Amino acid sequence: MSRVPSYAQFYLTKGETMTLEPSHEDQLNNVFFAEAFPDADSPAELYRQVYKYTDCGAWLSVLIEYYKTIEPDGFNDFPFDKLVNEWVHCGELGALGTWKDLDEKGVLIVAMMVGSIVEGVDQCTESIEVEANQLDEEPEEFNNRFYIALSEVEREAESIWSETHGCETCAKHFGRNLDAELSPVWTDCPDCEANGRFVYG
Amino acid sequence: MFEREDTITRVVFLLALIVVALDLLYWGPL
């Protein structure tokens, strides 16, 4: 199909040709993510790795962009395609299939988000969004930024955890009453050896 | 002599154990 818009013919004299930069949407695909994460064949697998190989068991969400067909309603008489963005979270990622499946379905991942909920106290770390700049960076750079965000989440989860998971001896050391409040972990605690305790939410 | 119910209980328990073990292997402990 010609890329020259129909109105352009009025401005071109005979024999003249006109080329346009292909639109960015045509260049973007999820191969970028397959290259950024060679060990994961799908967003769901990436989530599993993120969950399994972080101490805090981080979660992953991805922002997808696709053309959704809007069926006729009171406002429009004909179905039309609308570009929509939607976040897909953790367990739902399995429904997306592999990177390749996404390409076949015409779904593009535009950003990823990581965060964590600290066990026992239900405190959330900040969620960090990593936007994919497919045109401006190499897959490796995206991978780098992604894992930097993940380690930031991990660091924050660790800090929340050590603020709240002190054992009885830690609590005594800080003069806290464990029945009423939580205690930080005492790094020199002889009992838990700075391992803290389980907190049941 | 085992009762029929005992066998069923053991089988169900074993299956549950296998499911938990597989889940832990896949997702890791947490």
Structure summarized in a few sentences:
The complex is a heterodimer of chains A (201) and B (30). Chain A has 201 residues and is of the alpha+beta class.
Question: How would you characterize this protein structure?
Answer:
Chain A is of the alpha+beta class and 201 residues long. Chain A contains six helices and six strands. Chain A has helices at residues 24-27, 31-36, 43-52, 99-105, 139-164, 168-174; strands at residues 59-70, 80-89, 108-115, 117-118, 123-124, 128-131. In chain A, the strands form two sheets. A four-stranded antiparallel sheet of chain A has the order 2-1-3-6. A two-stranded antiparallel sheet of chain A has the order 4-5. The longest helix of chain A is centred in the last third of the chain and has 26 residues, at 139-164. Chain B is mainly alpha-helical. Chain B contains one helix and no strands. Chain B is rod-shaped, with a radius of gyration of 13 Å. The termini of chain B are far apart. Classes of the chains: A alpha+beta (201), B mainly alpha (30). Chain A binds chain B through residues 48, 51-53, 57, 119, and chain B through 26-28, 30.
Break the fold down into its secondary structure elements and pairings:
The complex is a heterodimer of chains A (201) and B (30).
Chain A (H helix, E strand, L loop, with lengths): L23 H4 L3 H6 L6 H10 L6 E12 L9 E10 L9 H7 L2 E8 L1 E2 L4 E2 L3 E4 L7 H26 L3 H7 L27
Antiparallel strand pairs in A: 1-2, 1-3, 3-6, 4-5
Chain B lengths: L3 H24 L3
Count the beta strands of chain A.
6
- Counting DSSP H or I runs of 4 or more residues, the number of helices of chain A is 6
Strand content of chain A: 15-25%
The average pLDDT value of chain A, as a whole number, equals 88
Low-confidence stretches of chain A: none
Secondary structure: helix percent of chain A: 25-40%
Q: Helices and strands of chain A, in N-to-C order? A: HHHEEHEEEEHH
The strand count of chain B comes to 0
- What distance separates the N and C termini of chain B? 40 Å
For this structure, the quaternary state is: heterodimer
Order of helices and strands of chain B: H
Q: Strands across the major sheet of chain A, in which order?
A: 2-1-3-6
* Shape label of chain B: rod-shaped
The total count of helices of chain B amounts to 1
The greatest interface here is: A-B, 6 and 4 residues
Strand coverage percent of chain B: under 5%
How many whole angstroms does the radius of gyration of chain A measure? Answer: 25 Å
